[in-house]
Amino acid sequence: MLANPQEFYINGLNYTIRSAIDKDAKQLSEVRLQIDGETENMDRERGEAFIDPAGFEQIIKTDTEKPRNLFLVAAVQDRIVGFSRCEGVYLKRFSHKVEFGVCVLKEFWGYGIGKNLLKESIAWADANGIKKMTLNVLETNDKAVELYKKLGFEVEGLLKNDKILSDGNYYNTIVMGRCNE
Ligand SMILES: CC(C)(COP(=O)(O)OP(=O)(O)OC[C@H]1O[C@@H](n2cnc3c(N)ncnc32)[C@H](O)[C@@H]1OP(=O)(O)O)[C@@H](O)C(=O)NCCC(=O)NCCS
């Protein structure tokens, strides 16, 4: 689906949050690659499961057409600096919920971009009768966990030793959910 664009001015930075469009595909491919290399908080190391511009064009098309998908980008003028996706599972037994994911370029952390991408996604979900949002987050990603809790997500479970990071240690993943009663 598509969401209406919103303008923000936070800590001296102007940015827009809007639905992804076809011509964002090239930048999205590059930004995803960069963000994957900036922390170990995402599932992939830099370059793994690479999505090229044509792949993003397809995702944008699907997310625009499907009723329980939403692809938002945060743009500073014409530069994409972060994005989020809500993805529905198109089985009747999962027809009430979507999975959420978000990432922001490190250079643009602390401007409320992650928070506003999530807020806009929650507003969209609530307005469209979506009863549940779910997500997975690395247990050590304190900032993301705090953000999710602040916006109404609860911890639902723990996946023990879910990931192995570059230090050779195993890390737990927290499963979180936000129910719209
Ligand atoms: C997690 C992420 C999306 C947050 O986005 P952001 O734009 O940097 O965060 P925001 O500026 O919107 O801040 C959101 C909240 O994070 C929390 N936060 C920010 N800095 C923090 C810090 N140093 N310690 C703890 N919490 C912090 C606060 O709750 C803040 O809300 P507030 O502004 O009301 O105080 C971003 O850091 C990111 O993309 N990280 C790498 C990828 C990632 O971890 N994605 C999530 C995977 S589940």
TrEMBL record:
Residues 15-177 form the N-acetyltransferase domain. This is GNAT family acetyltransferase. It comes from Paenibacillus elgii. CDD domains: NAT_SF. The keyword DNA damage does not apply. The lineage of its organism: Bacteria, Bacillati, Bacillota, Bacilli, Bacillales. Keywords: Transferase. One of its GO terms (molecular function) is acyltransferase activity, transferring groups other than amino-acyl groups. The keyword Transferase applies.
